[in-house]
Amino acid sequence: MAARRPKSLTPVRRTTPNLEGVEAPRRAQTTVSEQKINQYRKRRYQALHAETEAANRRRAAGKATARDRIEMLLDDGSFVELDVFAAHRAQGFGMEERRISGDGVVAGFGEIDRRPVAVYAYDATVYGGSLGEVTAEKIVKVQELALRNRVPIIGINDSGGARIQEGVVALAGYADIFLRNVRSSGVIPQLSVIAGPCTGGAVYSPAITDFIFIIAGQGYMFITGPEVIRVVTGEAVSFDELGGGDVHNATSGVAHFLPQTEEACVLPSIVQRRTSPVRAHDRRPRASRP
Length: 290
Fold this sequence. Notes:
Shape: elongated
CATH class: Alpha Beta
Distance between the termini: 87 Å
Low-confidence stretches: none
Order of helices and strands: HHHEEEHEHEEHEEHHHH
Helix content: 25-40%
Radius of gyration: 27 Å
Largest sheet: 6 strands, mixed
Mean pLDDT: 83
């Protein structure tokens, strides 16, 4: 039986449409306000989704960022950030070419169980979480607002101390922070979370707050690190022996809580927040029974 021959396809007749009298729709010109709003949206997206090498390494390692930690602590959608676009004003040492929005700290206000709270978190992906002049200004601002509005303040610390490139202005920033710690003492609750290695000035402020949480195996508090101790005194000491959570909870008495993970750190901080008076003259609320 002979194979069937496929039917030939009918050629498509292409007709040119008559475009006479047809005009292309006119695109409305963008106003100056719309252009500025679009620029703001672009800058905000870049600030919230930093693509620096350090940030990418942190994400690849599965570690929480400063904003991740704040989101774990606060009610969903309640965080209002302050000074998102703030950047350092330092000159020299190549600092002019590295101006990162936020300048190493995320600060603002939110709610825990619908109760207002101030919070700031050091960003270890920006200059190692070191404190510069603008970083200190952001923290002082949220401290002042918390004291003025009589709301508790929580600091999430993951900082290497003062930013050496900025010199003495960074140290002056620490003095401003310590002053607010003292003024707030006994007026509003101050809570500190040690979520990473903290050295130098980064441990002075937490040490004079009301309650300190050190995340086991992750958070450390010491004036200077083990390497400096080895060079100066010849003594070999580990991170845990020098400033780990066990040392400060059981020996020095500096810390008060030792959560095993960052997720576990959220629960005791919320419980402490529930049972702490918002202002010095408020009565202590009773903790609900389980």
